[in-house]
Design a protein that fits this description.
It comes from Methylobacterium frigidaeris. With about 300 residues, this protein is α/β, with parallel strands linked by helices. Helices cover about 25% and strands about 20% of the residues. Helix 6 runs antiparallel to helix 7.
């Protein structure tokens, strides 16, 4: 039976939203929640045109909110130098095509995500049988059309550098998707985990609405390889982060974050993995046919 790892309020890292609609986490890192998902803005306020980077691209309908926040934070008309994606699921690329075109920017992602970002393949279907709440049951209704930013797509280099983000490294954290990546900055031990783990029960409408801080594995209805997902959490726990922003839920910090992340890694099978599910019984490994099927 899956469990939860509660987190005390003193470990929650975010402050009230500022006038630009974002929550500041570091002088050059802020995030904004768009209904069910977070996007991040990397760059100091007032950075100006091409002086910042957008991480992930929200859900359908979030373009206006992202553009407004960017203008308020970085300056009117300030376009990013790039968009970096943790992965290509619908709630992280909802307005990627519109923004990439309007801003005329490259889109960076892991090579294994390429089929889902150049229009050539769709992800394996969601699994509503994993339980946990209404969002899981509704998952077959989520958008499945692959986006196509192939003309602007750039593949992250093998050496771990993130070209538009000096000082950051990418870490391959598969399981939730074949080419999922997390971003790590060792200088201040800041982790942007994407959906490698999340801090809310993303399967539950109630949990998503209340945003009570809890440590969870990746959203269950879209995770296709639980063994890989567990290894990814173990790798991130070993970093001993001071601050973590995830794709869903509130950011966490300090000893409470580290303890909860180690607890998740140590008890991953009990805490994160569904009792049953399509990909529990038949995982899809990176490079296998179902992971790159034509839509």
């Amino acid at each position: 039976m899956t469990q939860q790892i509660p987190i005390g309020p003193d470990s929650v890292a975010d402050e009230p939203a500022g006038p630009d609609g974002t929550h500041a986490l570091r002088p050059d890192l802020a995030y904004q929640r768009h209904a069910i998902v977070n996007v991040a803005y990397l760059g100091v306020p007032g950075a100006g045109d091409r002086g910042w980077v957008l991480l992930d691209a929200g859900i359908l309908g979030s373009r206006g909110a992202i553009e407004s926040a960017a203008a308020a934070r970085f300056g009117a008309g300030a376009r990013p130098a790039a968009i970096v994606l943790t992965h290509g699921h619908f709630d992280h690329v909802g307005v990627i095509e519109d923004l990439a075109e309007a801003w005329d920017v490259p889109v960076w992602a892991h090579p294994l995500e390429r089929p889902y970002l150049d229009g050539s393949a769709a992800y394996p279907p969601p699994d509503p049988s994993v339980g946990g709440g209404l969002l899981a049951r509704l998952s077959p209704l989520f958008p499945t059309r692959p986006v196509d930013v192939g003309a602007r797509l750039r593949l992250l280099p093998e050496d771990g550098d993130v070209p538009p983000l000096p000082g950051w490294r990418w870490i391959h954290t598969p399981g939730h998707s074949p080419g999922h990546v997390s971003l790590w900055r060792a200088a201040d031990r800041t982790l942007i985990a994407g959906d490698a783990f999340v801090t809310t029960a993303q399967e539950s409408v109630y949990a998503v609405a209340t945003q009570a801080p809890e440590m969870h594995g990746p959203p269950r209805y879209l995770t296709i390889d639980w063994e890989a997902a567990g290894r990814s959490v173990e790798a991130l726990a070993q970093l001993e982060p001071e601050l973590a922003l995830t794709g869903h839920g509130r950011p966490l910090r300090g000893p409470g974050l580290r303890q909860a992340l180690h607890d998740l890694a140590r008890n991953f099978a009990a805490v994160a993995v569904p009792e049953k599910g399509r990909y529990v019984e038949a995982p899809v490994r990176a490079g296998e046919p179902e992971a790159t099927r034509t839509p």
